[in-house]
């Protein structure tokens, strides 16, 4: 297991855990996470998941990472959608939560799907979808500020 604490502006903002790590022919793990509602919507969780997945693929040596999410958990589903995880299907009655067995949707990525890293892919996707200013740069990028190559400054 790889437990991570997520800080935002010097305070506890959430947690991310890579658990169920299996070696051998599988080389896989699954990611679970939560974020403080006051921080949600600021890109903290997608960035955290991307950093953890990159660590798992590049440093730890995993081949595959899964995220299992309750179908009604739209904010959590949005995280994996933003990052481009592939939806693989439904696991009926997968985990016992709140007194009952709950269905979960399975999302996954393999190392081959993000050869340049998940964080880099997410930054490229954000740059493509960001509104442009009068100079052609996305707000909050160096191009927006100085007119040169886009790079997230946050």
Calculate the mean pLDDT score and round it: 88
Give the N-to-C terminal Cα separation: 29 Å
Give the number of helices.
Answer: 4
The number of distinct β-strands equals 6
Taken from the alpha-carbon principal axes, the silhouette is globular
Q: Over the alpha carbons, how many angstroms does the gyration radius reach?
A: 17 Å
Supply the CATH class. Alpha Beta
In the CATH hierarchy, the architecture is: 3-Layer(aba) Sandwich
How would you describe this structure to a colleague?
With 154 residues, the chain is of the alpha+beta class. Strand 2 (11-22) and strand 3 form a beta hairpin. It is globular, with a radius of gyration of 17 Å. It has helices at 44-60, 74-83, 118-129, 142-146, and strands at 2-8, 11-22, 28-35, 64-69, 86-97, 100-110. The protein has a single domain, classed as 3-Layer(aba) Sandwich (Aminopeptidase), CATH 3.40.630.
Structure characteristics:
154 residues, alpha+beta, Aminopeptidase, six-stranded mixed sheet, 4 helices, globular, disordered C terminus
List the helices and strands and how they pair.
Layout: E1 2-8, E2 11-22, E3 28-35, H1 44-60, E4 64-69, H2 74-83, E5 86-97, E6 100-110, H3 118-129, H4 142-146
Parallel strand pairs: 3-4
Antiparallel strand pairs: 1-2, 2-3, 4-6, 5-6
Helix pairs in contact: 1-2
Short description:
By secondary structure, this protein is α+β, with helices and mostly antiparallel strands. 29% of the residues lie in helices and 36% in strands. It is built from 4 helices and 6 strands; from the N terminus they run βββαβαββαα.
């Amino acid at each position: 297991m790889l437990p991570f604490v997520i800080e935002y502006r010097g305070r506890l903002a959430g947690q991310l855990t890579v658990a169920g790590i299996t070696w051998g022919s599988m080389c896989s793990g699954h990611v679970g996470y939560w974020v403080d509602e006051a921080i949600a919507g600021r890109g903290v969780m997608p960035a955290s998941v991307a950093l953890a997945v990159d660590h798992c693929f590049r440093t730890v040596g995993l081949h595959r990472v899964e995220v299992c999410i309750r179908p009604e958990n739209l904010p959590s589903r949005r995280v994996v959608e933003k990052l481009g995880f592939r939806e693989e299907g439904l696991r009926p009655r997968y985990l016992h939560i709140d007194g009952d067995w709950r269905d979960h949707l399975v999302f996954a990525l393999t190392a081959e799907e993000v050869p340049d890293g998940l964080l880099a892919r997410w930054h490229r996707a954000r740059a493509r979808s960001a509104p442009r200013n009068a100079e052609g740069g996305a707000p909050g990028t160096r191009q927006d500020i100085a007119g040169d190559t886009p790079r997230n400054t946050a």
